[in-house]
Amino acid sequence: MKPKSSGFTLIEVMAALAIFAMAALAGVAAATSHLNDLAYMQERTLARYAASNALARLSLREEPQKLTQGAETVGDRQWHWRATFTETVTGDVLYVEVTVRPSVESTDSSYVLGRYLEVQP
């Protein structure tokens, strides 16, 4: 008679390792997705600050239409912005839309922010 040995069989060990590997891959995928989302949110937040700064700079000028592009430094990064002005029904109010990009050559905008500005006649 053969004595009964205690422990796991090779099949049981392989099944446990397969289950652990799948769980580990799911955890790594979730962590990677979370890190990508954080980087995206950080870029959008910094771009929004740059757009807000550009709109504030435009609102302080007597003739904001003369300044159509510029750069802001936010978060140790240079952000390039471009302003487009649209006349409204009211003669002394303009709608300003500021588009922020990480570089001048970039075609993708990181953030777009608009505001109505009162201009002096």
Characterize the structure shown.
The chain has a 4-stranded antiparallel sheet, covered by helices on one side. Helices cover 41% and strands 28% of the residues. It has 121 residues and is α+β, with helices and mostly antiparallel strands. It has one helix at 10-59; strands at 69-74, 77-87, 93-101, 111-118. It has one domain (10-118): 2-Layer Sandwich (Pantoate--beta-alanine Ligase, Chain: A,domain 2), CATH 3.30.1300.30. The protein has 1 helix and 4 strands.
Strand content: 25-35%
Q: What is the arithmetic mean of pLDDT?
A: 90
Oligomeric state of shown chains: single chain
CATH fold-type name: Pantoate--beta-alanine Ligase, Chain: A,domain 2
Please work out how many helical segments DSSP would assign. 1
Name of the top-level CATH class: Alpha Beta
CATH structural architecture: 2-Layer Sandwich
Poorly predicted sequence stretches spanning 5 or more consecutive residues: none
| Annotation, overall tally of beta strands | 4
Instruction: Classify the helix fraction into a percent range.
Output: 40-55%
The largest beta-sheet arranges its strands as: 1-2-3-4
- CATH homologous superfamily designation: GSPII I/J protein-like
Using the alpha-carbon principal axes, give the shape.
rod-shaped
The termini sit apart by: 107 Å
Order of helices and strands: HEEEE
Total number of distinct structural domains: 1
The largest β sheet comes out as: 4 strands, antiparallel
| Gyration radius, rounded | 28 Å
Which structural class matches the secondary elements?
alpha+beta
